[in-house]
Specification:
The chain contains six helices and six strands, in the order αβαβαβαβαβαβ. It is α/β, with parallel strands linked by helices. It has a six-stranded parallel beta sheet, with helices on one face. Strand 4, helix 5 and strand 5 form a beta-alpha-beta unit. Helix 2 packs across helix 3 and helix 3 packs across helix 4. It is globular, with a radius of gyration of 18 Å.
Length: 231
Amino acid sequence: DSPMLDNIIAQGAQPFVSFSGEPGWDAPSYTQTGELNAVPVNMGQYQQLVKDGLNHLRSKYPGIRYIEVWNEPDNTLTSTQYETLYQNVSQAVQAVNAALPSGELPFLVGGPAVYRHDSSLMSDFISFVKAQNLELDFLSWHEYGGDVRSDAQTLQNQLSAAGLNPNLPQFVTEWAFTASNEISNPSPGELMTAATYVGQGWTELETNNLANVVLPFAFSQDEYRRYSRSM
């Protein structure tokens, strides 16, 4: 029950939900907050948490559909750990979808939300999804300062080579000119460079027939606290 979600929906946008971490009680070492550096200890309990959470979202916010599994697993997990995690969350999503009333749109699940599109975890994940015949409704990744168009085309080639749909939707769920969290007030030149980066990225997606396949989320944390990501 989130005022933030209420405000997003009120503006006509659709929230994109990321399951990014397990609660402290299901972490390898108990903590007060959720963890991103390991998979849940009891995967069955985590699956139930996912099911309960999705059912609540469905009752409270029926327009939400996109469910992303984890955040930047290539920083903290092995490929095998992430694949186990994704398989279990995907199964939980499918179980919730199977119980939906006729005519209701299902949840869509995807990942792996990697920090680097060219990480081995990404290529391993694509092969794993194909080998296990898992549901994959979208591919997600992060981009800081790189070429969103050429990187998206590289992933299209990987999907095609694995026998998957090369036009699978790609969500660049963090996209910015710099990965720096905070700097001093940006100069006019830095602002122009950042604006040009975003404009060039969008234009190249459009001119290479990728605008209907790739959706980059311009990453902004706080426009008023000097975060360089929001220049």
